């Protein structure tokens, strides 16, 4: 599956707007009641606006021309009541649709975020966090803006246009037809221009995503930026994407604002037609002054909402471009599907790689790998940098699936385990452990749901009984030690210690340590070694290490390099293999 969202957008640029709209409307299907109420409000509002000019024209011909001014008072009162109804209906529809828009925003953000939680590593390897943030924050808001501010105006405008059109044609067919001719040109102009408007808006949203990704990258790497004094480097990169964003925004602005002046021109031409043709008809006695006044108002009522539609149409195109970007995420599926469980798992090795091939992209990283790991034993993976150790460990933890072949856990294809079962069985301490802002206690509880209701005392007892007490005592405030966002308030070694406690407390059947002690002093490293020795006898350990002293107690050593995983025999053999590799490279 292709997980690159930006590449996908290019391939699917021609998605039909109406299909996309259909899918979006499904998301607010449960708001049917509110939508209907808002619709009633907008229809009432439209009727008020449409009948006003008719009543005024009628009053002029019947009471002003004949000088019966008492009737004007009655009509004035009716008009006032209608305008008040207009106020109430306009307020109601704004309030109702504001709610619908905000709830849609809420639902969309939840849906995208839950989808992001389901997607596999490959998705995150292919997309920048900043771009994803922009989709969750910015693109969803574009849709909210359309629904809460524009949709009802949109529908209201269409009703007003239809109503005014009917009045125009029914008052005088010839004059009505002449008045509507400019509208046909407007329709044609809109149809031709819309796809381009949507494209320019999509390019602008993509560029906003790129801008957000750039900011995120430079903020994440601020230490390197400062240490190398390369602020100018990121400044230049930022300026480049900012400039691109500025240009795409200008283009989108130009596209969005092109409708309005053109529509205004057509509306003015229509007024000219009404005036000149209308005066001609009065001179021939076919038309009255009152009717012409009403007629001018209806022509305005027809063309003003059309002009408003121009602005709303641009908002609609922006919202649809945003929705395209969001729906690409929502339609993504994880490629790590769960296979139906087979009944009889053949008992045997705890872990087995059977004819495994793996590549991230086109370059093969692991080629036809076969090995077994037994329960309760300790295995070491060694090899040169970039040799494929972390990749092998990632396949054991099913962060990825092999392109070919099978990884078996406890005799069963690893794909048959549910994500919960698998993560209960396998503990993984990553090269760069990630901590959440909060306390050590909260970080330890992450992934250890069964300990959630433990009191601090009970948790401390457990920590002592699993021999982790000495590690915890290295932190001044124990379990309550504060960890700030992304764990920058503590050292890398301390992070590894917390990740170590988190993994050991889960009592996994397989514990993978990927360079897990690389940043820890020798005394503490020995302490961790002692704790590992005291893990249940059935725990299988897979240790990835560059420092050979950390693996001297391993039962078996695998040498991972150039797509192969080979048994290294003794520690001396492993060292010889490493040296040979160094010399030949
Ligand atoms: N997400 C990824 N996308 C594309 N290629 C990757 C990715 N992760 C790793 N690789 C490539 O796969 C190869 C093996 O990487 P891996 O991290 O497994 O090596 P390693 O032996 O663990 O290295 P180290 O000792 O430096 O941690 C490397 O050439 C690396 O460039």
Automatic annotation (TrEMBL):
Main location per the UniProt record: membrane
Single GO term (MF): ATP binding
Keyword Magnesium: no
InterPro entries: AAA+_ATPase, ABC1_TM_dom, ABC1_TM_sf, ABC_transporter-like_ATP-bd, P-loop_NTPase, Type_1_exporter
Residues that span the membrane, as ranges: 35-56, 68-88, 151-171, 177-197, 254-273, 279-298
Family annotation (SUPFAM superfamilies): ABC transporter transmembrane region, P-loop containing nucleoside triphosphate hydrolases
Cellular compartments annotated: Cell membrane
One term under GO cellular component: plasma membrane
Record protein name field: ABC transporter ATP-binding protein
């Amino acid at each position: 599956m292709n997980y690159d969202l930006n590449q996908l957008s290019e391939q699917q640029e021609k998605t039909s707007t109406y299909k996309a709209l259909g899918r979006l409307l499904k998301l607010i299907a449960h708001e049917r009641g509110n939508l209907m109420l808002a619709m009633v409000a907008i229809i009432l509002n439209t009727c008020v606006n449409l009948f006003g000019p008719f009543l005024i024209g009628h009053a002029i011909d019947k009471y002003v021309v004949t000088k019966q001014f008492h009737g004007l008072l009655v009509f004035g009162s009716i008009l006032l009541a209608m305008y008040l109804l207009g106020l109430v209906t306009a307020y109601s529809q704004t309030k109702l649709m504001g709610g619908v828009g905000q709830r849609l925003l809420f639902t969309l953000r939840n849906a995208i975020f839950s989808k992001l939680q389901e997607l596999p590593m490959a998705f995150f390897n292919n997309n920048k966090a900043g771009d994803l943030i922009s989709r969750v924050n910015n693109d969803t808001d574009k849709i909210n803006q359309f629904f809460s501010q524009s949709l009802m105006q949109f529908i209201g405008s269409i009703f007003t246009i239809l109503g005014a059109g009917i009045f125009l044609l029914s008052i005088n067919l010839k004059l009505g037809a002449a008045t509507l001719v400019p509208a046909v040109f407007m329709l044609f102009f809109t149809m031709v221009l819309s796809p381009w408007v949507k494209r320019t808006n999509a390019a602008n949203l993509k560029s906003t995503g790129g801008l957000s990704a750039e900011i995120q990258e430079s903020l994440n790497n601020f230490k390197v930026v400062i240490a190398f004094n390369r602020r100018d480097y990121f400044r230049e990169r930022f300026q480049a994407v900012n400039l691109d964003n500025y240009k795409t925004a200008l283009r989108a602005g130009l596209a969005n604002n092109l409708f309005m002046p053109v529509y205004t021109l057509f509306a003015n031409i229509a007024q000219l037609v009404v005036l000149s043709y209308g005066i001609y008809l009065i001179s021939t006695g076919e038309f009255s002054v009152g009717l012409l006044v009403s007629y001018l108002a209806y022509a305005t009522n027809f063309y003003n909402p059309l002009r408003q539609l121009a602005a709303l149409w641009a908002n609609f195109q922006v919202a649809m471009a945003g929705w395209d970007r969001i729906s690409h995420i929502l339609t993504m599926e994880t490629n790590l599907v769960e296979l139906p469980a087979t009944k009889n798992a053949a008992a045997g090795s705890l872990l087995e790689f059977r004819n495994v091939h793996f590549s991230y992209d086109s370059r093969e990283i692991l080629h036809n790998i076969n090995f077994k790991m037994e329960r309760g034993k300790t295995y070491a993976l060694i090899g040169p940098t970039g040799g494929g150790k972390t990749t092998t460990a990632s396949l054991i933890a099913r962060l990825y699936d092999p392109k070919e072949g099978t990884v078996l856990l406890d005799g069963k294809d690893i794909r048959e385990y549910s994500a919960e079962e698998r993560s209960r069985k396998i503990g993984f301490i990553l090269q760069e452990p990630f901590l959440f802002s909060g306390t050590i206690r909260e970080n330890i509880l992450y992934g250890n749901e069964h300990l959630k209701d433990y009191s601090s005392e009970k948790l401390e007892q457990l920590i002592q009984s699993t021999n982790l007490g000495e590690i915890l005592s290295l932190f001044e405030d124990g379990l309550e030690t504060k960890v700030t966002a992304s764990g920058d308030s503590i050292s890398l070694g301390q992070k590894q210690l917390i990740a170590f406690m988190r993994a050991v407390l889960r009592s996994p059947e397989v514990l993978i340590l990927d360079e897990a002690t690389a940043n820890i002093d020798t005394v503490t490293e020995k302490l961790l070694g002692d704790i590992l020795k005291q893990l249940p006898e059935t725990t299988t350990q897979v240790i990835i290490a560059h420092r050979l002293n950390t693996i001297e107690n391993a039962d078996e050593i695998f040498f991972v390099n150039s797509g192969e995983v080979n048994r290294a025999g003794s520690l001396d053999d492993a060292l010889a293999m490493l040296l040979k590799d160094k010399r030949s490279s």
